[in-house]
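Progress against Task 2.4 (sequence-to-structure conversion) is shown through the following example record, which the project officer requested during the mid-term review.
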Amino acid sequence: MSEITVKELTTQEDTARFWEKLHAYFRRDLFPQGEPGREQALDYFLGEEYRAVMEKHRTRPVDPLCFLAFGRGGADIGFAIPAFYPSEDGKCFIMEFWAEPEFRGGGTGAACAQALLGWARDRGAAYFELNADGERRRRFWARAGFVPNGVDEWGNPCMLLPPEEALPLRVERLTDPDGPELGWQWLKLENSFLAEIGEGPLTGEKKQRLAAAVREGRIAFFLALRGTRAVGMCSVSPCFSTFACGETGVFDDFYVEPPFRRQGAARLLARAAQGWCRERGMASLTVGCSAGDVGMYRALGFALELGAMLACPLEG
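Structure tokens generated for the chain above:
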């Protein structure tokens, strides 16, 4: 079997051919006949608005995406759209990837995936991320070393091929929930936290309410950053305690992306939240947790046991 080549498509002729292949892929593989909502989704992905956005990102000087073709024996056997983010921490996000139907089987898809990873690493990619809807796609990328990594800001499952290099972590408080750099990453972490505890992603209304609470100081979020990538978060909700006759805090929304756990993010987040509470003169910071997490929280400084925490649901 001949070696697979990777070619970036940049000429007008090549990109026109790529768009034809991409539209066929959308119709055939992403939105097959009979799928609910198919026509509405296709109207967008086959339309001029989506094309304009993609071309803008392909030609931008910072964090560009690429149109790629995989070749073998003089034929194009597959295509991909990787997006590079050197302004973050070397992430390469694989937006689309497919092998052409007539070349599928016999390990062609896996070989194209490895060719893509090698090509991107040669251009500075430190690690890889993608959306992985569907069990078949998850199994395919798991064989390439990808692991589940929560969901994105819309609630779609993500997978990550972790970076080999560990980078220093730091913690920042979220001050602008609508900011272009951290706002969407915060929502991604919040949705991943909700998915891990068995809840659905934030609705549009809930996103607005939560963002308003952040802006108004009714809740404080802290983000653990690896470069400019947010890999973990926690929150503190201030409240008045009649026992202390002063302000106390409730610690919640504690989440670190699975591939970045055991690297110190949890301890940094807990310390940042505790330090912020001390600076405000809070009497205490409490956390509600399952029995299995008690040891972890004790190690993070939550050493005083206050008994069981119960709740009375008021909605519905």
